[in-house]
Amino acid sequence: MRILLVEDDPTVRSFIVKGLRETGHVVEEADNGKDGLFLAVSENFDIVILDRMLPGGIDGLRILETLRAQNNAMPVLLLSALADVDERVAGLKAGGDDYMTKPFAFSELLARVEALARRGSAEQAPQTRLVVADLEMDLLSRTVKRGNEKIDLQPREFRLLEFLMRHAGQVVTRTMLLERVWDYHFDPQTNVIDVHVSRLRQKVDKPFDTALIHTIRNAGYILRAE
Amino acid sequence: MTPKFAARFPRAWLWWQRAWRFRSAGLGFSLAYGLIFALSAALFLSLLWWHTNGLLERQVEQAVDADARSLAEHWMQDGLPGLIRTIQDRLDLDVEDEALYLLVGPNGKILAGNMPAWPTRVKRIDRYYSQTILRAGTRATSEVHAYVFPGGFRLLVGRDVRGRDLLRRLLTDTFLWAWLMVTALAIGGAWVVRGIFRRILGSIARTTAAIARGDMRERMPIVGNEVDLVAHTVNDMLDRIARLMDGVKQVSNAIAHDLRTPITRARTGLEDASLHAKTTEEMHAAIDRAVADLDHVTAVFEALMRIAQIEAGARRAAFEMCDLTKPLHDMAELYEATAEERGIHLAADLPDHLAFYGDARLIQQGVANLLDNAIKFAPSDTMITLKASTEDSQVRISVSDQGPGMSDEDLSRASERFFRADAARNTPGAGLGLSLVQAVAQLHSGRLLLESRHPGLRAALLLPVTQGKKSITQASSDAHPVES
């Protein structure tokens, strides 16, 4: 993937660039708003990672607004130290697709970047069926089958599995699950998400030979067929 | 009027303006009071004076009129000689020497009476004349009225009004003195009022000055009058400022202690690894530990920021009418799994509808913290109940557990930032959960109640529903315009 990173702090920038290159992405970087805006409008990227507070007179929100004003639909992930709910809302309202606050774990950033980049292709056509290996989900009748066996899920478990299946093959972090499945934007201190995932595993993986839901250490979960 | 004055005397105008600006409100108040008092006293006394005076005057006129009427009757009955005789009789009988008579013939000859001559001024018969006369060598004022009889005879009837004048003068003097006294009293009263005013403002000024100097314990005295309205408001405000200041102090203490500890740990670990690590594994392990420590720092920091933000009331903009049932249900559902994993049963007792004005997300977060605590401390095979109800226009959300509970001493300190009961030292957490719940409650003008239940603890959020009533009615009236 071609990724544009606009970030003024050199340490953070080189950390992200290194991490993304290691995972096989092509990264362009800018250390101020002006260059960032220039790169963003002149070239095509699969995703833009944008810091909000930038030197050079143009901050992240301005870049984002300019892009959206030009009908540029490139996925943009805002990465900012401004963590207030109001700031998040401002960022998302300006056209951001996701919002991450500093400090952050690279695994979280990577998971979100990949989820964002794939989203464009995955969610364009309205889907009625999701299939991963022998696991099938019918979104219309809201039924789940694995092999020939029907799996009974609680509504929330269904949404959790749906999210995992929509992002099959990608790492999904606990925070992402909390935000997207439960719509909570705060950090519960206990391992609430882990427990829900392990419950889901009991139903989806336990009775079968192969496990589909895998735990990625220090990051989150991944649903994949192997 | 003032601009003309200003144009004519620019310097005087300037002086007046400057003087006015420094004039105290108390002085203005008391001056106005004194002025109004003196003016009303003057008005009242003048009215009294006019009235009494008029009464006296009318009395004289009535007496003269009655006298003249009876004389006319004598004229009708006995003719001129009878009239002259009657006048003589009357003059003889007039002990007080007040009556004045004069009867003149058509040729101007005096026929009877005690006046030396017909006053030249007296020409008309339809009004009273005030006449200065000489009587027994002294000047006196009199009130006279002229009457005309057939045949050209003219009669003058009058009264010596020396007595009335004396009385009038006495009255005037008395009233004048009375007015002076009243004015003096008004000025004195104004002074007293000003003093009271100064004292009231003085106590506010003293208190706020003390606060400004940094003595946060100073409060306005409650004296039991209307000033208490201000005093209460000011005191409430000061309490809140003090709380915020305390918060800042606590946060800096906490940063000194609770944040430095993990930072120190991370630093030590990294330095140790850098100096002594033999293998890559050891290095990685040390780094991971440091990252975990720093994550903890971040979490504490974020919780603090959040509490500070909530306490400052900035989130009130997000208040709206909402139904709390679903958010609370979701919360119970989210934590149910965790509770079950620990062998704790989580029961939710929620009404079908729970109308509330506020920020549902914050309430959710507060409840999440309460549930978190309950699950953390409750032993297995016990029950945690999340209960919500509306009573007396209050939403009451309670989380009760059957855990070890807290001692009374700990209860009173539980919502302080970074406070951790001794029993909780070994559990994960930073001691910020209840602070946040407390802040959420306060933002919604509510309270957090912690009660021991032996066994267990009940944490209840009491939130008034009514604070949003005005906006509810406003919103509904906006949505449905009244049709006539």
From TrEMBL, chain A:
It comes from the Bacteria. One of its GO terms (molecular function) is phosphorelay response regulator activity. Gene3D superfamilies: 3.40.50.2300, 6.10.250.690, Winged helix-like DNA-binding domain superfamily/Winged helix DNA-binding domain. GO terms for cellular component: cytosol; protein-DNA complex. The keyword Kinase does not apply. Keywords: DNA-binding, Phosphoprotein, Transcription, Transcription regulation, Two-component regulatory system. One of its GO terms (biological process) is regulation of DNA-templated transcription. This is DNA-binding response regulator. It comes from Neoasaia chiangmaiensis.
TrEMBL record, chain B:
GO terms for molecular function: phosphorelay sensor kinase activity. It catalyses: ATP + protein L-histidine = ADP + protein N-phospho-L-histidine. InterPro entries: HAMP_dom, HATPase_C_sf, HATPase_dom, His_kinase_dom, HisK_dim/P_dom, HisK_dim/P_sf, Sig_transdc_His_kin-like_C, TCS_sensor_his_kinase. Keywords: Kinase, Membrane, Phosphoprotein, Transferase, Transmembrane, Transmembrane helix, Two-component regulatory system. It comes from the Bacteria. It is found in: Membrane. The keyword Transmembrane applies. Coiled coil: none annotated. Its EC number is 2.7.13.3. GO terms for cellular component: plasma membrane. Transmembrane segments: none annotated. PANTHER family: HISTIDINE KINASE, SENSOR HISTIDINE KINASE YKOH. This is histidine kinase. The lineage of its organism: Bacteria, Pseudomonadati, Pseudomonadota, Alphaproteobacteria, Acetobacterales.
